[in-house]
UniProtKB/TrEMBL annotation:
It comes from the Eukaryota. Residues 1-22 form the signal peptide. Keywords: Signal. This is Uncharacterized protein. SUPFAM superfamilies: S-adenosyl-L-methionine-dependent methyltransferases (SSF53335). The keyword Signal applies. Pfam families: Methyltransf_24. It comes from Spumella elongata.
Length: 270
């Protein structure tokens, strides 16, 4: 009857709606659940931000990837579609980039940063007043990620010029499918991270480099290419993202200064 057909149409519509609400399809036609979608990334961002805000005033939290939605989407897309299994980063910040990596798939993440103990302040002229709050916001981020992604997030504590080579030596079987260099923004510090991370790379490793608007970082890239550490040409660069998501940014900040954020994708030269 007509009534039965109407009921069946409603049932089919609801079934379809449920499917599209909980399933996403990648570029290869592979079905994945919302838990790995960019929607899930954003959901996790709000959870993390609430935890951070309860620990540290927003304007004392170091700037992070979550400020820039397009950058977040780009990182998520690269990690999700590549099905990366091991991701290594230098520069945890407050944990937003790690949240992207962990949400995008089932990768294990190794994050290298200072990770000071509660009550201790590290010396960093680069970070200024933010270092006084680093222990509080980093430890809050670590707890959030380790509880939400048990067994998959591993913080490596200390200065990266020491911890990355020590980790590579002690874990020769670990090779990173994605490497993010976003730690020291001095030329020498960035160059040392490029050199040391190569021991954890393979020929197909994707290398992301943040903050190329900083001349010191750009110079480190030039030197790394000159030393034949990185390939001569970048694979892809995104330039000029400026507008800050107010849900995660500092109060009163609507955009980044100057030309905005520049970040690139490249590979190691073997």
């Amino acid at each position: 009857s007509r009534a039965i057909r109407c009921i069946m149409n409603v049932v089919l519509f609801l079934a379809f709606f449920c499917c599209i609400s909980f399933v996403v399809i990648d570029a290869n036609g592979k079905v994945g659940h919302v838990k790995n979608s960019f929607y899930a990334v954003q959901k996790n961002f709000y959870e993390l931000q609430a935890i951070l805000d309860a620990k540290v005033p927003r304007d004392k939290q170091v700037g992070h990837t979550g400020w820039l939605t397009n950058m977040c989407s780009y990182y998520w897309n690269q990690a999700h579609l590549s099905h990366a299994k091991t991701i290594c980063e230098v520069g945890f910040g407050v944990g937003f980039t790690s949240t992207i990596w962990l949400t995008a798939g089932d990768a294990t993440v190794y994050s290298f940063d200072l990770f000071p103990e509660e009550g201790k302040v590290v010396a960093s002229a680069e970070m200024g007043d933010f270092v006084n709050y680093m222990a509080a916001y980093q430890n809050a981020g670590i707890r959030f990620l380790q509880e939400k992604f048990p067994g998959r997030f591993h913080p490596i504590k200390g200065y990266s010029d020491k911890t990355i080579p020590a980790f590579a030596k002690a874990n020769s079987s670990v090779k990173c499918d994605i490497i993010l260099v976003d730690g020291s923004h001095t030329t020498e510090g960035t160059l040392v991270d490029f050199r040391n991370f190569k021991a954890l790379a393979h020929k197909d490793t994707t290398v992301f480099i943040d903050d190329l608007e900083d001349a010191r970082v750009s110079e480190a890239i030039r030197l790394a290419q000159e030393e034949k550490i990185l390939v001569p040409q970048m694979t892809e660069c995104i330039r000029g993202e400026k507008y800050i998501n107010p849900d995660f940014g500092h109060p009163g900040w609507s955009q980044l200064p100057g030309d905005g954020k520049h970040f690139c994708r490249t590979r190691y030269q073997f």
